[in-house]
Amino acid sequence: MAAPIYDKSYGKAKIATHEFMEYESEKLNKLIKKLKQDGNDQIAIDIGCGTGRHSFVMARHFKTVFAYDFSPNMIDEANRIRRDREIQNICFFVNDFEYEKLIDEQQFYGKCDLVVASFGMGSFVEDSNSMLRRFYDWLKPGGYLFISFYNANSITLNVTPTWRDSALVAQIDKDNNSLEVNLTPKTRFNIFCKLFDTGIEGPINRIFNVDSISTYPMIMALLPNNLLENEFAHAAFVVADKTLAENKAGQNGYYVIVTAHKPPQATSGYSNVERILQDLNAEYEVLEHQPVLSMEDVKREVGPLAKCIIKTLLIRHKDTEEFVAVLLQSEKRLDMNRVADLLGVNRYHIHFAREKEILQLNLKREFQNETGESL
Length: 375
Hints:
Helix content is 34%, strand content 22%. The chain has 2 domains: 3-261, Vaccinia Virus protein VP39 (Rossmann fold); 286-359, YbaK protein (Alpha-Beta Complex), CATH 3.90.960. The strands form 3 sheets. A 7-stranded mixed sheet has the order 3-2-1-4-5-10-9, sandwiched between helices. The protein has a 3-stranded antiparallel sheet with strand order 6-7-8, with no helix packed on it. By secondary structure, the chain is an alpha/beta fold. The protein has helices spanning 3-9, 15-37, 53-59, 72-85, 105-108, 128-138, 198-207, 225-228, 231-245, 269-279, 295-302, 336-343, 355-359; strands at 43-47, 64-69, 90-94, 112-117, 139-150, 170-173, 178-184, 187-192, 209-216, 255-261, 310-317, 323-329, 350-352.
């Protein structure tokens, strides 16, 4: 039952954790002010909102805030605070983001100015690719993603301090993909934790334009908590860690914060198809189904009709930057050597077009992996 004591306990006693929360809030507030100044202040989403720490800040700047957490106790506490403050423009919901369709999701699909998944939330979702694609689909073109993770390159994973007085509330167990959270001496729990590394950074870069990646804190994460209780030491190490946070050559802080935006020219394939059907006065029916991230998923959802499905793969020439579209039966794999022969080019001069390259063509969005399988 962490919710009633969460705001009072988390990050209050452990100074490195507290400083990360402050640092993250500073970066998010700067982004919110930028969006406000640019007139992008209609809809914001807070995933893993807890008791609403960021949601209440966002509510002062956005017309509507949708906030979700899988914990009923956290949402109860957030709603209690909302009622006490008489705030009308936040909708708090109990939802498990990874395994459920969100309540009111259709209201903000493709319309969001900002999606926030803070305080390491990005590490608590096992399927990172699915998470990022959902965020992408919620955002309007030019909308921003603000997300944080626990860092696989944290210096704390390579150094073992001799003291037990950690300045961090949560301790990473890299071998077991978990995080031990010590909220109070009597309130401890373990949760799944997927660390940020190139395996996550790559997919972010493929579909978003990344504005910044920073890690924080590095030095304070190594120090005993009682040392940081000294006012002079505390101030000095905050300055040092903030300097290191933006240093791209040494991304070794405990947490990672990524700020990125959806390419402004991005379009929705679904919207394009719907518009064409309406222009033709065609009769059609929309069938709801679970997200499909591979051809195997499509076959499972669609059934026997899958044999009729043709997938479109885009090939790009590295030197000329020209694109070639290849249409292939869904169950077949593409032979890149054969494509190179047909095009009369060297095999190593062509590759499957990346998502970001496809989006720049202003076409219907098709994801594919390096085997040529449409996603």
